[in-house]
């Protein structure tokens, strides 16, 4: 796989700090005790990527890793055991899935790196050099959303999400999120900020309901079981364009969103239904914001 491009940003030795305090507020990897992202490590690039399946996988790894001595040989044996037990089948074969992803924190409530120096039992030692990309990639790489989404959008996402599973799926969807927020700001005729959602339960829940389309979109092909988003810059797994399916009529204002949600263009009627479905979700958020 091509090494992902790195955004122009500096990091500390544990890869968890950005340049300014303002940037820190928009940092996306480890947010709080229940929200984190492991998408760039291939978290969702597994045969079955449902919440229950991933929790089961991550719990088993975490328990096993806790018991091994912190030696290079033991860590490589752990990797072999994980890959033997779980298999190596990947929906996107060129997208590496890291076997050292597990559950971290005092409550094991977020996903993260078992090799990190702050990890349980690592006693401050950094073992990430034995991973596929090595420790340096962890120090310098941030996903495209970190540098391409405006800070206010990043702050909104951080403030409304309360669960790592959906957070990791939506936060790397740079184009989709940009389109979501631009549509909402167009409807509201003003910029949106985190306080629009932190001060109003209804608007926060409505926005989360909109984000849920990432995992519950009913207009995907029934044969499309891929959950992971490939957001690196080598375009190995692109999403198909819907342009040819609009024929003579005007292209939908939601075209980008429909494409990013991988809408199945089975017929023009289905595309129209998808547009109406989106319109309803946007109206829910708009109504909550207007009545806050």
What does this 3D model show about the protein?
The protein has 292 residues and is an all-alpha fold. The protein has two domains: 21-145, no CATH class; 150-290, no CATH class. The chain is 44% helix and 3% strand. The chain is built from 13 helices and two strands; from the N terminus they run αααββαααααααααα. The chain has helices at residues 21-25, 51-67, 72-86, 134-140, 144-148, 151-160, 164-170, 174-188, 195-198, 201-211, 213-216, 255-260, 268-290; strands at residues 101-104, 110-113. The chain has a two-stranded antiparallel sheet. A hairpin with a 5-residue loop joins strand 1 and strand 2. Helix 8 packs across helix 13. The protein is globular, with a radius of gyration of 20 Å. The termini are far apart.
Structural class: mainly alpha
Q: If you compute it from the alpha carbons, what radius of gyration comes out, rounded to the nearest whole angstrom?
A: 20 Å
Number of strands: 2
Strand order of the biggest β-sheet: 1-2
Distance between the termini: 47 Å
3D shape: globular
Q: What's the number of structural domains? A: 2
List keywords for this structure.
disordered N terminus, globular, 292 residues, two-stranded antiparallel sheet, mainly alpha, 2 domains
Quick structural gist:
Helices cover 44% and strands 3% of the residues. The chain has 13 helices and two strands; from the N terminus they run αααββαααααααααα.
What order do the helices and strands come in, and which of them pair?
Blueprint lengths: L20 H5 L25 H17 L4 H15 L14 E4 L5 E4 L20 H7 L3 H5 L2 H10 L3 H7 L3 H15 L6 H4 L2 H11 L1 H4 L38 H6 L7 H23 L2
Antiparallel strand pairs: 1-2
